Amino acid sequence: MLKKLLLSGALAGFAAHANASVITVNFDSLPDFANINGVDLGGVTVTNPSGHVDVFANRFGVGARSGLNAIGSFTASSSNNPMIFTFASAVSWVELFAGDAGSLTGDLDQWRMDVYDAATGGTLLASLLSPIWIGGPYEGLSFAGAGIRRIEAIWTEPGCCGLGFDDLSFETTAAPPPPPMPAVPLPASGTLLAGVLGVFAAMRRKKRS
Length: 209
Known about the structure:
By secondary structure, the protein is mainly beta. It is 14% helix and 41% strand. 30% of the residues are buried.
C-alpha cells in the first residue's frame, strides 16, 4: 500500500521539454510517520545511515518548503548526516531544499550538498554550501552537469535538532522518439493481386456501360 501511495502521490510535478523531463518530488501525498528509507519514489530513492527517512507532516518543528510534508531522520543528534538521494539513471540537474519551521530562538541552520557521478563511491562533482540562517524558510541548493547519479545532503551546523528536506527536483534525459516507420512495399504476389482486382473493376464498369 505504501509503495502505491509513493508512486501515485510523491511525483507532484512533471514537465517535459525537448528530450528532457523535470520531476519534482514534494512528499505531500505520503502518510505522516511513514519510513521511506530505500523506497523507489519514481526515479530516485532516499536513504539514511540510521535506516530511517521519515515523513513529517508539520510536526516536531520540521515545517516544509511547500505543502505540509518534509522528510528527515531524527533518531540521533547527527541523524541527518548524510541524507542520500540516489537516482535510477544519470540526471543533468538537481535541486533540493532544507530547513525547519524556525520555531526555536537562535536555532542556527546550515547544510551542504555533495554531488557524485556514481550511485556509490564515484567522483565528487561539486560540494555546495548554504549560508547560515536562523530557522525557516527553507534554503535551496542546485547543481547542473552531466552524469549526476547521487547527492548527499549534510547538516553542517549542529545548533539543534537537524533539518527537514523538501521539494527535490531533477532533470532526466528522455529517450528520443523512434523514427517514423518506412512504407513497407507490397510483395510481388500482393502487387499481382492488386493488378487483377483493378482489371476486374474495369471490366465491371465496361459491362454496366
